[in-house]
Predict the 3D structure of the following.
Amino acid sequence: MGQAVCGSTPYKIPVESNIVIKPNLDNLKFYYHPMNPSCQAIAGLLKAGKIKHEAILVDILKGKQKNLDIGHFNPNASVPIIEIENQTFVESQAIMRMLCNLFDQLEHFYPKNAFQRHKIDSLLDWHQTTFGPTSKCALGCLFNLRKS
Ligand SMILES: N[C@@H](CCC(=O)N[C@@H](CS)C(=O)NCC(=O)O)C(=O)O
């Protein structure tokens, strides 16, 4: 897998890969932490679709996400991660879209109709670009205030 650095950020994006196009979906692993909203969203989707998976708790409070023995693509050393046939998939919203594309029973959560899909995408985008960063910032301020 080749990698490119995106702008000045350390986020590495794959520029080529040998992705298995039709993997066996019976061995899906979900690396998560229960307190993380991105993980909770994926857990809810897996539950709604009754999707068989192995859930692996990663103790982010002890920094375990930095030393995961998965040896694959995890550029930001964070959870959630989905692993299918030794391939890892990161970023919760991309993961949720992928799951909806993979499993028929989840299709209605991410409709094919462009107008209906826009309703979902607009909420996901708002969460990722506005709500998420703002709440992280607010929590950061709160913890710093408590420390001082
Ligand atoms: N944009 C990511 C955010 C994931 C995220 O915030 N992960 C946190 C969980 S609290 C994490 O693993 N943090 C560990 C770290 O940054 O070292 C997504 O939506 O998947």
Remarks:
- The chain has three helices and six strands.
- Residues 33, 36, 38, 60, 65, 77-80, 91-92 surround glutathione (CB under 6 Å).
- The chain has two domains: 23-110, 113-148.
- The longest strand covers residues 12-16.
